[in-house]
């Protein structure tokens, strides 16, 4: 809980009464490896904050191949925010890669926080902007770099993650085959 409040306080000021109110709306959710936090074709039910574990966002392309387009690790928000806010059907799967523990907020509770705490929407706006900038920073090099450089960048951006997630997900994220990833890993040892 402390990690969540510390994270939020980076983006705005809240007093103890406000943080207590926010925490009163949070519930703890545990996901086992491969469980879905949110599924394509369904309306996202929660916005979450990841306390433990790793989550990935993925979709299936027109060839039926599973494509991982982002990873979320501890002390970050997990949300298909746009679809959650609009209560629209999601196009991505949000899946636990490892056992995960999250603080989650239902749409009703999330809206109640926004309607009760002055400035909450501004804080969430800054958090969302920060998350988008991080995602762009992480994805942009994947377009122009060769596979080895992309892998080395991945290791730099997500230290320790390569040992926690299946290599098939890492390869998909990098846009290469698992065989290519194995070759790259052998060559850089």
TrEMBL record:
<feature type="domain" description="Cyclic nucleotide-binding">
    <location>
        <begin position="30"/>
        <end position="113"/>
    </location>
</feature>
<keyword id="KW-0808">Transferase</keyword>
<dbReference type="InterPro" id="IPR018490">
    <property type="entry name" value="cNMP-bd_dom_sf"/>
</dbReference>
<dbReference type="InterPro" id="IPR000595">
    <property type="entry name" value="cNMP-bd_dom"/>
</dbReference>
<dbReference type="InterPro" id="IPR014710">
    <property type="entry name" value="RmlC-like_jellyroll"/>
</dbReference>
<keyword id="KW-0418">Kinase</keyword>
<dbReference type="Pfam" id="PF00027">
    <property type="entry name" value="cNMP_binding"/>
</dbReference>
<dbReference type="GO" id="GO:0016301">
    <property type="term" value="F:kinase activity"/>
</dbReference>
<protein>
    <submittedName>
        <fullName>cAMP-binding domain of CRP or a regulatory subunit of cAMP-dependent protein kinases</fullName>
    </submittedName>
</protein>
């Amino acid at each position: 809980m402390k990690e969540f409040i510390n994270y939020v306080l980076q983006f705005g000021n809240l007093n103890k009464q406000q943080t207590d109110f926010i925490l009163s709306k949070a519930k703890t959710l545990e996901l086992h490896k491969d469980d879905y936090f949110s599924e394509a074709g369904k309306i996202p039910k929660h916005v979450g904050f990841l306390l433990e574990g790793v989550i990935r966002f993925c979709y299936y392309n027109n060839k039926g191949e599973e494509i991982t387009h982002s990873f979320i690790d501890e002390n970050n928000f997990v949300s298909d925010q746009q679809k959650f806010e609009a209560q629209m059907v999601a196009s991505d799967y949000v899946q636990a890669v490892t056992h995960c523990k999250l603080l989650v907020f239902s749409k009703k509770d999330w809206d109640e926080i926004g309607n009760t705490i002055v400035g909450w929407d501004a804080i969430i706006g800054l958090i969302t902007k920060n998350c988008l900038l991080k995602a762009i920073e992480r994805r942009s090099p994947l377009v122009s770099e060769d596979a080895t450089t992309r892998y080395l960048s991945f290791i730099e951006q997500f230290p320790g993650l390569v040992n926690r997630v299946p290599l098939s997900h890492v390869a998909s994220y990098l846009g290469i085959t698992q065989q290519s990833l194995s070759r790259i890993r052998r060559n850089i040892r």
